[in-house]
Design goal:
Order of helices and strands: EEHHHHHHHHH
Helix content: over 70%
Structural class: mainly alpha
Number of helices: 9
Radius of gyration: 17 Å
Largest sheet: 2 strands, antiparallel
Number of strands: 2
Strand order of the largest sheet: 1-2
Oligomer: single chain
Length: about 160
């Protein structure tokens, strides 16, 4: 009998609360994922993936201050974590702070040009701001990435985050 839990996304090791939380988040079980991550942070407060996922949970729950505080902690630990910058952008976007969102998304794509969501927001934001050249560049990047197979986009992103093993 295996100690692993089977999910729609595959098999998850019950000894890895971060992987469990990631699966819960994919299944839109955000409060459960958040609770599991908060508990996991007690034993490993510098786990970058756990911090990132916890910030996502907080944003989805509308807990923007908690999300931004978590992301600030993550930035001190890993300033080049592009997904964290993208998540900062998502929080500012959701709060209506579009200038701060643009700055965060711009920083995210500088670190990792494979972030489709950042390019999508930047194309729209620069277009609305009348920055035609910047909007055109962002739109081109968004369209190029959107036209690729998801696996290739994921590999591109992983490459820029140094996560290819």
């Amino acid at each position: 009998m295996s100690n692993q839990q089977s999910t729609a996304q595959g098999t998850v090791d019950p000894a890895d609360p971060v992987k469990q939380a990631e699966q819960l988040l994919k299944q839109k079980q955000v409060p459960q994922a958040s609770s599991l991550l908060e508990t996991a942070m007690g034993s490993d407060p510098e786990n970058a993936q756990a911090l990132y996922l916890l910030a996502v949970c907080y944003r989805v729950q509308g807990r923007f201050d908690d999300a931004l505080t978590t992301l600030e902690h993550l930035r001190t630990l890993s300033p080049d974590y592009a997904h964290a910058w993208q998540e900062i952008g998502h929080n500012h976007r959701d709060l209506g702070r579009f200038d701060a969102a643009i700055d965060a998304y711009e920083h995210a794509v500088e670190l990792n040009p494979g972030l489709v969501a950042s390019w999508r927001f930047l194309a729209d934001a620069h277009g609305k701001a009348g920055s035609a050249e910047r909007a055109k560049l962002a739109e081109a990047n968004f369209k190029r990435l959107s036209g690729l197979p998801p696996e290739l986009v994921a590999v591109t992103s992983m490459m820029h985050e140094g996560k290819l093993y």
